[in-house]
Specification:
- By secondary structure, the protein is α/β, with parallel strands linked by helices.
- The protein has 12 helices and 9 strands.
- α1 packs parallel to α5, α3 packs parallel to α4 and α10 runs antiparallel to α11.
- It is elongated.
- Bound molecules: nicotinamide-adenine-dinucleotide.
Length: about 290
Amino acid sequence: MKIGFIGLGNMGAPMAANLASAGHDVVGFDTMAKPDGLTLAVTAAAAVEGADVVITMLPNGDILRAVAADIHPAMKAGAVHLDCSTVDVASARAVAEMAESAGLTAVDAPVSGGIGGAAGGTLTFMAGGTEAGFATVSPLFDIMGQKAVHCGPAGNGQAAKICNNMILGVTMIATCEAFVLADKLGLDRQAMFDVVSTSSGYSWSMNAYCPAPGVGPQSPADNDYTPGFAADLMLKDLRLSQMAAEAADADTPMGEAAMALYQRFVEDEDGAGRDFSAMLPRFADRGRNAG
Ligand code: NAD
């Protein structure tokens, strides 16, 4: 396929490189990044010319909307705009409407798996859009990832991503605060892990990404909380989940509390740039009335 790829940052550059290595004809564009080894265009419109599929991997919904307005008129009739960024559901749905009125198909397919998954071609995609759009881009999912789930119409990929990450933020906080309570009750962290990881309190946060150093599988906690998945990115996703909850009138008090905690951690407590599991030392340093 002929593929245009807009947004060649930490995630986009390795994803584009994997598509090119698999034999696709990839032309990339980024306002800042100029990664080696990829064919680059001088404008976004030039990168998408004649492409069967245009992939965007951008920081947020406002930038996605602006890029879509720029590239849709330059895209070939019937081409697919596959957005893999994590953005708000409303922007994903607005871009799908813009695509439809330009005679294009849109698929929103945010990813989980991070930079390692992008480099290794092992991402998971959660996709929203039509059956036909999903079928067109499925071979590309197979190259860039190991699993793709079609979640329903436009915007449902973003909906699945923010619901998953709201659960992740909440369970990470619950796991970290439980470790600190266990510490203060004189319970050994290894014993706490051995019990919870095989009991009804288990979760991915405890079992696969344990926030306590030296306990459970290797995780960012064993590397001084170097990300991994940065607290800043968790805050972004929790904000998106609260924007969606407000728009849909959904009652999400735990998600709201998790967003408030990550906001304080990132903005006021030196959590920026640390892994999101660094909530454990953050709680450990505080008493009950720390505010
Ligand atoms: P990044 O900041 O490294 O890359 C974004 C790129 O977009 C940058 O190179 C930037 O120059 C480019 N860009 C910005 N505006 C542009 C424009 N108008 N035209 C063309 N290029 C433009 O971010 P990233 O880590 O690659 O993340 C990309 C997306 O993937 C985000 O939505 C993020 O939430 C999501 N995501 C990231 C991770 C991760 O671990 N990094 C994991 C899952 C999802």
